[in-house]
Design brief:
By secondary structure, this protein is an alpha+beta fold. The chain folds into three domains: 144 residues, Alpha-Beta Complex (Adenine-n6-DNA-methyltransferase TaqI, Chain A, domain 2), CATH 3.90.220.20; 97 residues, Orthogonal Bundle (Helix Hairpins); 143 residues, DNA methylase specificity domains (Adenine-n6-DNA-methyltransferase TaqI, Chain A, domain 2, Alpha-Beta Complex), CATH 3.90.220. It is 34% helix and 24% strand. Helix 7 packs antiparallel against helix 11 and helix 9 packs across helix 11.
């Protein structure tokens, strides 16, 4: 039997695949499955030579390298030889909340603790794709026993079976293929994390600290002090009107923004509106194409700073949104609210079953703004970073979906 992956992507180019039937193989037949040693916590030493890898160190389907955990000093060569995690290893969580989660790990200065499964094989990349799948995870969780703490056994791991090619060379090629996808995912994730940190660092320094009239860093040719006034003096607020979830339909014709959209954007600018409402237009309020949108309700007080700039006119605005109309550059104000007003907004949230932030609570808050020209420079700079973050996030998502589709069609 061949997987759908082969039938779709490979068979049209290689009819010899018809004669390469796949077969069910147990993990114990593909590699050696063992566990670690029950090290005593009283032997742990912050200056110890070896890391002690436990279940809590295994992250979700990752290639873990930099782990912070307990350390221990061991002089027994037999223990070191048996439990040292040199070479390539697949680690499997055998109990606790992350039961069934796996990770690739290699560190000659680390020892494996008890209740962590270890798989060693000369075809580890192929096995890793099997063990990092949701099917393996669900199976291990289904097989687990125990009351307070669920656990699985080495036998259950060893006897887990999956369809795979008979030829070891073919298995290694499949593993190599998926490793390249994993490397691409890891690379894009590192780029994305680094870019988000860079944006955070710039946001902390490109706006003035409290009660200061100049930021730490500025664009050249801007030297004037920032003006400090109340939010209500720079513009005025109004509320949107109802565009509830039930009114949104694919065949509706009126574009609308509901408060939920404000929490899902990578940056403040909403440039595409995906929701449409069928409510009569006379019951709605519409954007002029130059407003800052502030959430009125939320679960986390800090979420109320997830403000957005709506740059499109004639878009219906939902009732759970406060609309701020200002003569300042709206995208700058949206970034300023997100970066500097989180805690100020949070302090004014009114609790209850649903947290609310009424715009009347915001009008007396002092903010500092520079000239319109400098506002545009700052906003456009931060927005370029957000656009790049968005592109990387989308690309990362596509690669993950590609791998997911391959896995679903590979291991049937």
């Amino acid at each position: 039997m061949l997987p759908l992956f082969y039938l779709i992507f490979a068979l049209p180019f290689n009819f010899n695949l018809l004669f390469r039937a796949w077969e069910q193989r147990k993990l114990g037949e593909l590699g050696e499955v063992t566990t670690g040693k029950a090290f005593s916590s009283t032997s742990f030493d912050n200056q110890g030579e070896y890391l002690v890898i436990t279940n809590k160190n295994i992250s979700d389907s990752s290639r873990s390298q930099n782990i912070i955990t307990n350390r221990i000093s061991i002089s027994d060569d037999e223990i070191i030889q048996r439990y040292r995690l040199d070479g390539e290893n697949i680690l499997v969580t055998m109990d606790g909340v992350n039961l069934g989660k796996t990770a690739m790990y290699s560190n000659a200065n680390a020892l494996l603790a008890q209740r962590v499964g270890r798989i060693k094989s000369n075809q580890l990349e192929f096995i890793y794709q099997i063990t990092s799948s949701n099917t393996f995870l669900r199976t291990m969780q289904t097989l687990s026993v125990g009351n307070a703490i669920k656990h699985i056994s080495l036998k259950q791991i060893s006897e887990y079976s999956s369809l795979g090619p008979k030829d070891i060379i073919e298995r290694k090629k499949i593993g190599s293929f998926f490793k390249k996808l994993d490397n691409a995912i890891a690379l894009h994730q590192r780029k994305l994390d680094a870019l988000k940190l860079m944006k955070k660092a710039f946001s902390q320094q490109i706006f003035p600290e409290n009660n200061r009239k100049k930021p730490k860093i500025r664009f050249t040719s801007f030297y004037e002090e920032w003006e400090q006034r109340k939010i209500g003096e720079y513009g005025y607020f109004y509320y949107g009107k109802s565009a509830p979830k039930w009114s949104v339909a694919q065949d509706a014709t009126t574009p609308c923004v509901r408060y939920g959209e404000l929490y899902t954007k990578f940056g403040p600018e909403i440039d595409i509106v995906h929701s449409y409402t069928n409510i009569d237009k006379s019951n709605l309020k519409f954007s002029s194409g130059n407003e800052v949108l502030v959430p009125r309700v939320g679960e986390n007080p800090l979420d109320f700073a997830n403000c957005s700039w709506l740059s499109i006119s004639n878009v219906a605005i939902g009732e759970m949104i406060s609309v701020y109309n200002t003569e300042q550059y709206p995208l700058f104000i949206a970034y300023y609210f997100r970066s500097k007003m989180k805690y100020e907004f949070a302090k004014r949230v009114e609790g209850g079953n649903v947290s609310n932030l009424y715009y009347s609570y915001l009008e007396d808050i002092l903010i500092s703004v520079p000239s319109i020209e400098e506002q545009k420079k700052i906003a456009e700079f931060l927005n370029k970073i957000d656009i790049t973050i968005n592109l990387l996030q989308n690309k990362l998502g596509r690669i993950k979906e590609l791998k997911k589709a391959y896995l679903q069609n590979m291991f049937i």
